[in-house]
Design a protein that fits this description.
Organism (chains A, B): Muntiacus muntjak
Structural class of chain A: alpha/beta
Pfam family, one (chains A, B): Myotub-related
Helix content of chain A: 40-55%
Protein name (chains A, B): Myotubularin phosphatase domain-containing protein
Number of strands of chain A: 11
Low-confidence stretches of chain A: 62-68
Oligomer: homodimer
Largest sheet of chain A: 5 strands, mixed
Number of helices of chain A: 17
Strand content of chain A: 5-15%
GO biological process, one term (chains A, B): phosphatidylinositol dephosphorylation
Shape of chain A: globular
Largest interface: A-B, 61 and 61 residues
Order of helices and strands of chain A: EEEEEEHEEHEHEHHHEHHHHHHHHHHH
Keywords (chains A, B): Coiled coil
Strand order of the largest sheet of chain A: 7-8-11-9-10
Distance between the termini of chain A: 33 Å
Mean pLDDT of chain A: 88
Number of domains of chain A: 2
Chain lengths: 479, 479
Amino acid sequence: MEFAELIKTPRVDNVVLHRPFYPAVEGTLCLTGHHLILSSRQDNTEELWLLHSNIDAIDKRFKVFCVFQISEWRLSYVNQEFAVCPSYPPAVTVPKAIDDDALRKVATFRHGGRFPVLSYYHKKNGMVIMRSGQPLTGTNGRRCKEDEKLINATLRAGKRGYIIDTRPLNVAQQARAKGGGFEQEAHYPQWRRIHKSIERYHILQDSLIKLVESCNDQTQNMDRWLSKLEASNWLTHIKEILTTACLAAQCLDREGASILIHGTEGTDSTLQVTSLAQIILEPRSRTIRGFEALIEREWLQAGHPFQQRCAQSAYCNSKQKWESPVFLLFLDCVWQILRQFPCSFEFNENFLIMLFEHAYASQFGTFLGNNESERCKLKLQQKTMSLWSWVNRPSELSKFTNPLFEANNLVIWPSVAPQSLQLWEGIFLRWNRSSKYLDEAYEEMVNIIEYNKQLQAKVNLLRRQLAELETEDGVQESP
Amino acid sequence: MEFAELIKTPRVDNVVLHRPFYPAVEGTLCLTGHHLILSSRQDNTEELWLLHSNIDAIDKRFKVFCVFQISEWRLSYVNQEFAVCPSYPPAVTVPKAIDDDALRKVATFRHGGRFPVLSYYHKKNGMVIMRSGQPLTGTNGRRCKEDEKLINATLRAGKRGYIIDTRPLNVAQQARAKGGGFEQEAHYPQWRRIHKSIERYHILQDSLIKLVESCNDQTQNMDRWLSKLEASNWLTHIKEILTTACLAAQCLDREGASILIHGTEGTDSTLQVTSLAQIILEPRSRTIRGFEALIEREWLQAGHPFQQRCAQSAYCNSKQKWESPVFLLFLDCVWQILRQFPCSFEFNENFLIMLFEHAYASQFGTFLGNNESERCKLKLQQKTMSLWSWVNRPSELSKFTNPLFEANNLVIWPSVAPQSLQLWEGIFLRWNRSSKYLDEAYEEMVNIIEYNKQLQAKVNLLRRQLAELETEDGVQESP
C-alpha cells in the first residue's frame, strides 16, 4: 500500500505556521504522498514544501473531548477566559438544558467555581459520572436553584442518582463552618448521598514518608517491616480509593444510576475516583492512547494541581503542606487492577512508573503548572514539548506495551479484599536487589514475543518465495 | 533421526520379568528400534516381543545416589536391614576412612541412630554438606571418638569446618537434660559451631493455622489483615530458614569450608537447610529432574516423617502434636527463590503446588510412610505407582515447565530482606478471586511460547519445501 492511500485528510484550510524570527503565515496545508505543502495562495509569497523524510518528529498537541451524538449534553465555552473557574479548561461538557448564565450562577455556589461537569458517559446505559467542588451551603444551609436544576437535568424521568461525597459525614459537616458543606437531601430529593472516607493532604504525605522509610529500613526484621508497612497506612489508602471507585462503577453499571462525585475542592480524591471508575468500566481507558486521554482529561484538564502536589521528589521527607502523593496513589491503584487483570491492559507497569517519574520531574511541559489556565499563561504549549509526543514514538511505545494484552470489552471488577492488595514493588522496592531479576524475566518474555513476530514474518516471506517459485514452474510448464 | 540411533544401551543381562499369575522369568533384555525383546536364551521357553507402540506408560523406580570419582567417599550398606538407623535408607555415603563398625558406634552416639552422612558435594571446591541427628552428650558431656574421627575425616589438611546447629544455644543446652546435646568445641577443635534458630513442631503448626485463618478473614480491614499476617510469624519462619540456608551455602562457596548440619532429630529443619543450600549452590537442583532427585534424596530417603508431619490437610486446624508444615515451608522458600530468580528454574510454581498437594493427599505411594524402612515394610514399591512416573509424562511435564527457563550455571543468592519476601498467593490465596486472572495470564504466556514452536516448525517445513522446489528447478535446468 502506498503512503498516499493512507491520507484521510489531504487538505486543511486556515492553518497558521509559526516559526522563530519569521512572521506567522496563514494558508492552506496540503498533504501529498511525499510532501507537506503550506501555501498562502497569494502571489509572490513563500510556499513551503517539506519532504516527509526530513521530518524528525511530530508534536501532536491535542485536546480530548467526548463527542456525543445525543441531544442531552453540550460543550460549553463559558470558561473560555478561565474567568468562571480558574482550575477548569476553556471547554467543558454540561447538560444541554442548562445555559451559560446558569453555569455562572452555579459556579458561585461551588468550591473554586467548580460547577458540576460531565466526567464519563457510560455508553451501555447512558448513565453518567459528573464531578464538581463541594456546594457552599455554609452553616445557614444556602441553596442554589440553578445547581439543583443542573444536577437534576442529568437524570432521566423517574430515575434517581447518587452523590458520592469522598469525605466522611462528620468532615463534610465540619466543612460548613468554613463556608463549604454538602447537598441537603431535602433540596436534592432525587439524589441519595453516600459518604466515603478518602484521606487527603498531609495524611497521605505522612503515609508515603512512613512507607518509604520502612522500605529503606535495613534492620532485616520481618515483624518490624510488617508493623511499619501496616503503620504507614499506604495500603489502607489504596483500599479506600479502590473501594470508592468500585462503588461509583457499580452505581452506573449495576444500579443503572448516574452519579455526582466531589469531596472538598474536587481536584484530588474526586479525580482518583472518577478516573479509576473509568478504568473499571471503559475498556478504551485500558489502552495506551485511552489511558493518555484519561490522564489528559481527568487530571490535567480537570485541574489537579500537579505543581503543588508533586513539588518535590516523592522520596523527599521535608514536605510543604500542599504536597501530597494523590497522583501516585491513583497510579498505584491502576497497578493493583493491572496486577489482578494482567491481560486486560495494553500498557505495562513501566508505563505507570514512567508517568510517576514525569509527574515529579520531567523534561516535558505536560505536568507543569496547576491547571490549564496556568499552562496557558506560561505558554507551555509553545515553549515545551508534550510528553505524549515522545511516549507515542514507536521506539518508546514498545517499552510500555504489555505483551499479554488481549482486548477485553468487559467491565472488570477488582478485588478490594486486603489480601488482594500488594505493595507496588516497582515503585517502592525498585532499588531492591531482586527486582533486577524480575526485570530480566520481563525482558525474556518480551524477547520471546518479539521472536514470535520475526518468525511470523519469516513464514510470510517463505510462503511468498514458495508461491513465486510455484508460479515460475507454472509459467515454464505452460508453453 | 531414527529412534534406533537414540538407543544408548541396546542390551541388559540378568533382567527379571514379573507378571501377575506367571512365574518370574530371568533373561536378557534387548532394545531395538521397534521392539523390546526379553529372552531367557534357553530353548523352548517363552520369548517376549513387545512393540514400542503398545507401551502405554513406563514406571521408572529409581534410587538416587551421588556417584563420586574421588577416593574420599564410599557407599556404605551398613543400614541394609534398617537396623543401624531406622530412618535412613539402606545405602548412605560416608567418608571412605570410616568402616561400618565405626559407623555402628557413631550411630549409638547420635539421635535416632542418624550418624553423619554426606548430603551434598560441592564440585567447585570439593567441600561438602553433611547432616546428622544431635550428639547424645547428655549432662555428663559424653564423647564418642569414632564420631570425632568421622567428622574430621571430611576435612582436608589444615582446613576448618562449621557445625550449623539449627537450634538457639539455650535450646541446645536444655537438650542435654534429655540426653541430647551439641558438639563441645574442646572435642571438635577443627570445627566452629554456629547456632541459628529455626522453629519446629507446634510452633510452625500454630503459625500455619493463624496464617490460614487470617487469609480467610472476610472483614475487609487492611490493618487487621497485616497485623494478623505479622502475628502468624509465617514469613518470619521463611526468613529464618532461608537465612540459615544462605549461611550454609556461603560457608561452602565463599569460605571454602565443609559443614555439618543438625538440630535435634535431623529430620526437619536440618533437611530444610541442606536442600535449600543445594537449590542455591547447584544448578541441577533447579531443573525438574534435579529437583525430583533432591526431594527423593533429601526428604524421602533422608527420612522426613511425611506421614506424621502431613497427617491432615494443611488447612485443618485440629492438629496432632507430630504434625508440622515443615515440607510446605521448604516449598515456600523454594518459591521465594523462584520468584526472585524467575528465569533460573526449569519448573514453575505449579510444580511446587503439586508437590504440596501430593505430600498431604495423593493417589501415588511416593509420600506414604515416614521413611524408607516403613515404605519397604508396606511394599509400597510393589503396591503403588510412583508420583514421578506420572509427573514425568510429557503431557504432565508441560504443565510444570517454566517457559522463561534459561539454564544458569551460577550460584544464586536470594535476598532475605523482609521486604523481599512475600506471601505465597498460589498456596494461601489460591481461592482468591483474582488468582483466576493470574492463571489466565500464565496460560497466555504458555500459549505464546507454544505458538512460537509451531511457527518454528512451519519455518522449517517451508524451508524444506523451498529447497525441494529449488532442487527440482536445478534438475530441470541442468540438461
